[in-house]
Design goal:
Distance between the termini: 72 Å
Structural class: alpha/beta
Number of strands: 14
Number of helices: 28
Shape: globular
Helix content: 40-55%
Strand order of the largest sheet: 1-4-3-2-5-6-7-8
Length: 705
């Protein structure tokens, strides 16, 4: 029942549900207390509504969004509480006192201050909103961008302004309790004065000297920088907050390119979730602004995702366009018919090429280039299980997807069976459970299954900790945890965690990478990863959520994996380790292998997971592994050869395509020159039959006959 209520109310936890219930019940309680009247009951109900509202705001509860949609937003809730307070006073002996009229005047005046306050904060935000937001781009030397207003003035400004009524509400309640007007007038004075001071404090930041230059000047400065930097390869991405990982996975590859790289983003939310990088980044929300940028030096554009906004760059003919994707799997997304709009489609290995041929979606074989997967370089090749610890099995199911297909994830139908068998295995193994970050975002059943699986793993971990057969190096783990705390503190210091952050304009001005700090962060992250695995026993089961440790780090400590059809399986194959994939849709082993290339060297599991035995046998005794040769062959088929290295293949493909792009552009210049000469000689009819010239001398492809 609680889970159903959580789902209906769109809150994230039982605590949020309780806060929502208290908030919604608090206002009837206020009315009842005002009518009785009971000052103390009113004060208690008011405190509940204040605290519940604040808690839900800090949690970012979706319920607040719904309340706003039905005209019960934050300002209305504050106004209702104030009106009910006036009703309470009207029901007390103070109703004939001057304090009653003072309370009415106070709240009318206080709401009068909301208009200039809201206007000022909106005007400041709009004036400081940049048409282009940047990282690692030198704007500071080109345009003057003043400091942002203090965060304490602008962050949650509406909440802060409304909560200034606390002084008046408290004073009036005290007045009603002690039957004296003095506390009430003191509270009223504090509220009005603080409101006026807040408005006055905002006023200087709307002046011209406190705002960035106009859009035209900012765009001109960005164009000037582009002219100096002359980017050659662009990574172009648009998406949501949750899809930011699709661009983040390519950052290290972009840093290793032999050409000058640039990242173009189309959504501010993606920029705020972009991982640290040394590559210059430009976030251009407006399509017109993007199309007006000087990208004449770019020869190749790379696209990790098929999204509608790609069209804004695809229209540029002076560069070649390449779909590189954000993973390699047999899912339908890997053979999207939209891919035929690109000049080339780059796949990891031969499997990607064959996948498009089988799907027959219009992508020509000549346009497919095999470049490997540069991101897989951190994955270590398996050398067999370590002798000093029990084997580790990683369970990494994918999420449920948008279409409700039961074959998307094993978590709902098979997750508990898989984990139960793994934790009960004899000889024992360690289980690492790392769910997909999107798990449960669409299907509540997947979210519930995740919680049950996590509970199983945690229960098994507690039982193993109490088992005398398993011993732990408590002192070593304590040292590792202490070292983790030190590393995390240093990372927080280097990342500026806890420091006051400016707005997008100030960040664009100052966001130039500090190479020494960047290199130290990279070294500390590697140290953190090594230390993390030492901070708990090598036999301890573990639920691993969040960004750290990364999935590839889990690959490196695991001896085998159980997963679903997704790019996770294709990536894990790079390790050469045994793996199992669940046929959750029950299509049958033979058909499952036929439909999904990545499972040809896998142990196929049913939803009962009774077939886990061969996987565990292969982990314990690699010499008895019948699928080892198949995995090696499949690795070459899916991911390409080990030599040359994938980044070398990637750079070679870039160089080849850049040559084609340059050849096309030179050809256009030659045609334009020929057209100009022909125009002077009156020989336009002989230039290009069926085409006419634009005012710039370029052929527009429109037939004239």
């Amino acid at each position: 029942m609680i889970s159903t209520a959580i789902r209906v109310a769109r809150v994230g936890s039982a605590a949020e549900l309780a806060a929502a219930a208290l908030l919604l019940l608090g206002y009837p309680g206020l009315m009842l207390a005002a009518l009785v009247p009971s000052v103390y009951a009113f004060a208690a109900a008011a405190a509940v509504t204040y605290l519940a509202d604040r808690y839900l705001h800090r949690k970012g509860s979706y319920l607040l969004n719904r309340l706003g949609k039905v005209r019960a937003g934050l300002p209305i809730r504050f106004l209702i509480r104030q009106l009910l307070l006036i009703l309470l006073i009207a029901r007390t002996p103070l109703s004939d006192d001057l304090i009653f009229y003072g309370a009415i005047a106070c709240f009318i005046g206080f709401y009068g201050l909301q208009a200039p306050h809201g206007a000022l904060t909106t005007l400041i935000r709009n004036r400081r909103r940049m048409p282009v937001i940047t990282r690692n781009v030198d704007l500071k030397s080109r345009i003057r961008i003043p400091d942002a207003p203090p965060r304490r003035l602008m962050h949650r400004s509406t909440e802060k302004m409304l909560h200034l009524d606390l002084a008046a509400v408290t004073g009036l309640l005290v007045s009603a309790a002690v039957d004296s007007y003095v506390p009430g007038f003191i509270g009223i004075g504090v509220t009005v004065v603080l409101g006026l001071l807040y408005v006055i404090a905002l006023t200087p930041y709307v002046r011209g000297g406190q705002t960035p230059p106009k859009a035209a000047q900012v765009l001109a400065a960005v164009d000037e920088w582009l002219g100096e930097y002359m980017p050659e390869t662009v990574l172009y991405f648009s998406g949501s907050k949750d899809s930011a990982y699709q661009v983040n996975m390519w950052l290290e590859t972009m840093e290793q390119l032999e050409t000058r790289p640039l990242i173009i983003l189309r959504d501010r939310i993606v920029l705020s979730n972009l991982a640290p990088t040394t590559v210059p980044v430009i976030c251009v929300a407006g399509g017109v602004h993007l199309m007006n940028l000087d990208l004449s030096n770019v020869r190749v554009a790379l696209y990790p995702a098929n999204v509608g906004k790609n069209i804004h760059l695809l229209r540029v003919p002076t560069m070649k366009h390449v779909f590189i994707g954000h993973g390699d799997s047999d899912k339908l997304a890997s053979v999207n018919p939209f891919s035929k709009v690109y000049d080339e489609v780059w796949t990891a290995g031969r499997a990607g090429r064959d996948r498009y041929a089988i799907a027959d979606v219009g992508v020509r074989d000549d346009d497919i280039v095999e470049v490997g997967r540069p991101q897989l370089a951190p994955i270590k090749t398996w050398q067999g299980p370590a002798e000093d610890r029990i084997p580790t099995v990683l369970y990494a199911p994918t999420w449920e997807g948008w279409d409700g297909n039961p074959g998307n994830t094993s978590l709902v139908l098979a997750g508990e069976n898989i984990v139960k068998q793994l934790v009960a295995a004899d000889p024992p193994v360690r289980v690492l459970y790392k769910p997909h970050p999107f798990t449960g975002t669409v299907n509540p059943k997947a979210r519930a299954a995740h919680r049950r699986v996590a509970a199983l793993v945690e229960k098994a971990a507690a039982q193993r900790a109490a088992d005398p057969r398993f011993t732990a190096d408590a002192a070593g783990q304590a040292r590792a945890k202490s070292e983790l705390a030190r590393i995390e503190a240093r990372l927080a210091e280097l990342s500026g965690a806890g420091a006051e952050k400016g707005d997008e304009a100030e960040t664009s001005r100052d966001a130039l990478v500090d190479m020494r700090a960047h290199e130290e962060i990279a070294r500390l992250r590697a140290e953190w990863n090594a230390t993390y695995w030492s901070s708990f026993p090598t036999h301890q089961h573990r639920v691993i959520e969040g960004a750290q440790p990364r999935l590839y780090d889990c690959f490196n400590v695991a001896d085998a994996m159980v997963s679903d059809i997704s790019s996770v399986v294709s990536d894990f194959i790079a390790s050469g380790k045994p793996y199992a994939v669940t046929d959750s849709a029950r299509v049958g082993v033979d058909e499952f292998r036929r439909q999904n290339t990545a499972v040809r060297a896998a142990v196929i599991l049913s939803n009962e997971a009774s077939e886990l035995g061969p996987l565990l046998d292969a982990v314990r005794d690699p010499s008895a592994d019948p699928l080892a040769g198949d995995r090696a062959e499949l690795k070459r088929y899916l991911l390409g050869p080990d030599e040359p290295k994938s980044i070398e293949q990637f750079n070679a493909a870039l160089a080849n395509l850049a040559i084609k792009s340059e050849a096309r552009n030179q050809g256009q210049l030659i045609r334009a020159a020929a057209a100009a000469a022909a125009a002077e000689d009156g020989e336009l009819a002989d230039l290009l039959p069926g085409q006419r010239l634009s005012s710039t001398g370029d052929t527009d492809g429109v037939t004239t006959g």
